[in-house]
Specification:
The chain is of the alpha/beta class. About 25% of the residues lie in helices and about 30% in strands. It has 5 domains: about 160 residues, Molybdenum Cofactor Biosythetic Enzyme, Chain A; about 60 residues, Molybdopterin biosynthesis moea protein, domain 2; about 70 residues, Molybdopterin biosynthesis moeA protein, domain 3, CATH 2.170.190; about 80 residues, MoeA, C-terminal, domain IV (Beta-clip), CATH 2.40.340.10; about 210 residues, D-Maltodextrin-Binding Protein, domain 2, CATH 3.40.190. The chain has 17 helices and 38 strands. Strands 29, 30, 31, 32, 33, 34, 35, 36, 37 and 38 form a 10-stranded mixed β-sheet that branches. The chain has a 6-stranded mixed β-sheet with strand order 16-13-17-21-20-18, sandwiched between helices. α4 packs parallel to α7 and α10 runs antiparallel to α17. Its EC number is 2.10.1.1. Its cofactor is Mg(2+). Catalyzes the insertion of molybdate into adenylated molybdopterin with the concomitant release of AMP.
Amino acid sequence: MKRQVYLEMKSLEQARDLFFSRINLEQIRAVECVSAEDSLGRTTSEAVFAKLSAPSFHSAAMDGIALRAERTYGTTERNPRVLSLEEDFAWINTGQPLPEQFDAVIMVEKLHEVDEEHVELRSPAHPWQNVRKVGEDIVATQLLFPKNHCIRPYDIGGLVSAGVFSVKVWKRPLVAIIPTGSELVSYNALSGTEGLSGNRLIEYNSHVLAALVREAGGIPLVYDIVPDSEEQIALTLKKAVESEAVTVIINAGSSSGSKDYTVHVIRDIGEVLVHGVAMMPGKPTILGMVNGKPVVGNPGYAVSSILSFEQFIKPLLHMLQGNHPPGRKTIKVWPTRDIPSKLGTEEFLRVSIGRVGERYVATPLERAAGSITTLIRAEGIIRIPALMEGVTQRSQVEAELLVDEHELEDTVVIIGSHDITIDILADEIRQRGYDIRVSSGNVGSLGGLIALKKETCHMAGSHLLDTETGEYNISYINKYLKGVGISVFNLVLRDQGLIIPKGNPKGIRGIEDLERQDITFVNRQAGSGTRILLDFRLRQLGIDPAHVRGYDHEEYTHMAVAVDVLSGAADCGLGIFAAARALDLDFIPVEREQYDLIIPSEIINQSKIQSVLDTIRSKNFRNRVTALGGYDPGNSGNLWKEIV
């Protein structure tokens, strides 16, 4: 099949203008009538007027006596007046109807009871004193709410008290979601704990999109997974357009591959307005119209799918309900490193945010469009405009928050070498009841020390081996953090070694085999402790790195190395035992190394830092780390060195 190439990619602004200009809201949205008690969060489709006055009768606003005000005129402390029950006044409680012959209420506190039949007044009353008059709150026929008013909890009280027991609102928009892909399988089709057979993937985008639709006030209609067949996709799209759905999302198949049929299907039975939007992630988005209904070809990668939804479907759903998407709070942040970006494409960069000192710092997460965890872990999004080639760590930029701002105050930012126990630490902190988030960035041990020097993190994870002394971290701290008071706490001792496929099919024995030309290696990034260990061992063995196939192939985490080995992209890689064990791979030990947390001494006494250290020292944390395999947490949380 002929591939569809993005010949006329639109900017995000152009795409939005073109898409929304073609949508006839009055044609696709509908009105429904709901009871007042069920109207919370709904938006009125027409003005709402009161049917009754409230209150509907004159009533007492205080406990006391009802009387005619003119009977009290001239009353003073020196000239009190005695009134008789029934003849001059009647006892009344708050909320009771005011007898027709009376026009005022005097509070019981202002009275002197002479006897059961008489009271004495020492000050006059005025007409309608302490009286709630008819219509004081609401007058019949008055406007309660205009069109496109979102009903709040207290508005329901106004509706009922005004005699409006049902209200016309915009109908919740029904959104058809069509997941496509022959490789996909529904999680409902998986039995028990059995793994996926063949090259199958669990389809989850439709569940995310359905949740986003509900969050925006709509109702999702999710179709069964449609295989990569132009005919079946077309048939399902026609069915969806003929349903009561006001808009249709076709998930996946929107790119330019040979089996990306969505653009052809939309063009054959409708009109393609846009194919390709200059945004990242989300570039393959398709915007079209079929029978007067908007249809969006939504990218298959998870993050692309979500960001495409937020730019096009989310605002549409709010428009259909007569309101606007809630705005996200923004704050100014300092990037922890320079972030280049592609000129001509607006980028939505997911970042982890924490407060270090007086500044909010933002650490960029992986840019992979298919990595849903980058949104799970993100506290914010930095939007890099299409006309910028990136942002630098020397300038503040604006970030849209994905969490409440107060959560950033209790965030501990850990930057440096990747280790699985950091994830255990983050969970165990919450298990112990601390309201603290851990934000981690994997930039290697040396990168962590540099981040500490720049004051862009609270602590650095490091396992830098001094190849001359055999000591970990201290010489590097003295070199890169000169003049900074530092406390070094041990997190774990851990086993580093070669991660290899199950059964060791190539008979790898150790580092000495890396120069074999039938072995492909996957490396860690320059500046990481693992890379330093590898280079040290290669020098010991007299092996030129240029003779190691894959030496320039770099990954940023131990799990990424293990995944490369599992997938066959590499025959081996240097990493920790726990990563090999997690993916059921074999392991050849090379070194038991020391992994430390490097913390500026001046912040040691901060409560959140102490909470982290207390957690590391806890029995439960140590037990969980031990269960991972390849770790010795015997000294976890112990102060190892103080450097002034």
